[in-house]
Write a structure and sequence with these properties.
about 260 residues; mainly alpha
Length: about 260
């Protein structure tokens, strides 16, 4: 499956957006230069339309560009008479038309990805969620037995916790995107099934996040135990199985 390359805003694109915002807020004289910027953005948006899936960075890029381009198109339409009079030589296209095309292209890319997500069998593989639950239970059981982390486990556990927190954030962001998408499609007749599917997937993302949060909490408790001496008669340091579980969990989290 072709995945869209990560689209973080480049310095040139940040300058383009600043120019568009200047147009929105103050009115800009260099309409022709803005047109060139918009065509460059349209080219990148077209690449997203061809991608089978958007990365989180690509999604953020599309949302940001769509919002600014839509507002720029509205402002240029409102100022169309002044823009036409200032333009030398005369403009070949209606003021705001190119901004509308950028907004439309990024919207199509987002909507295509929303339909893909709505139809996805799993947002997070069920084996991953099940394994994280298993490791969390094993971790808590180790605490009950009085085990504390050995140095090798402590190093891996810190990496696992960081990766788990990142997945929690991704699931929260994904749930928000799905619900915003559902709200957009709810305004269109005939999209009831898609809206329901998007809400269902948002609930799945919430459930996945809750599973990861429970896992993260267990890792934190176990890491905290490393600073405490084991009680008399306790099992002492952990064993190789805990470190192996954490290594597998780290791999599973990284590929989600």
């Amino acid at each position: 499956m072709a995945i869209a390359a990560a689209h973080c805003l480049t310095e040139d694109e940040e300058e383009m957006i600043a120019a568009l915002r200047e147009l929105v807020e103050d009115g800009a004289d260099d309409v022709r230069g803005l047109g060139e910027d918009l065509r460059a953005l349209r080219s990148r948006a077209a690449a997203l339309e061809d991608a089978e899936a958007l990365t989180p960075e690509s999604w953020d890029w599309a949302e940001n560009i769509e919002r600014v381009a839509r507002r720029a198109a509205e402002t240029m339409a409102e100022q169309a008479d002044d823009i036409v009079q200032r333009a030398l030589p005369p403009l070949s296209r209606r003021p705001g038309e190119e901004a509308e095309e950028v907004a439309a292209a990024t919207r199509r890319a987002r909507e295509r990805d929303l339909r893909r997500l709505a139809a996805a069998e799993h947002l997070v593989h069920p084996d991953t969620a099940g394994f994280l639950g298993h490791v969390a239970r094993e971790t808590d059981a180790a605490l009950v037995r009085g085990e504390v982390l050995a140095p090798d486990e402590l190093a891996v556990a810190a990496l696992v916790e960081d990766e788990a927190v990142r997945l929690e954030e991704r699931m929260a962001t994904l749930a928000g995107r799905l619900r915003r998408g559902a709200a957009e499609f709810a305004a269109r007749p005939g999209e009831e099934a898609l809206v329901a599917a998007l809400h269902g997937q948002a609930a799945n993302a919430d459930a996945a996040r809750a599973t990861v949060e429970a896992f993260t909490a267990s890792v934190r408790r176990y890491r905290a135990s490393a600073g405490s001496a084991p009680p008399a008669g306790a099992a002492g340091t952990g064993h190789a199985g805990n470190a192996l579980n954490y290594l597998i969990a780290l791999t599973s989290l990284a590929i989600c």
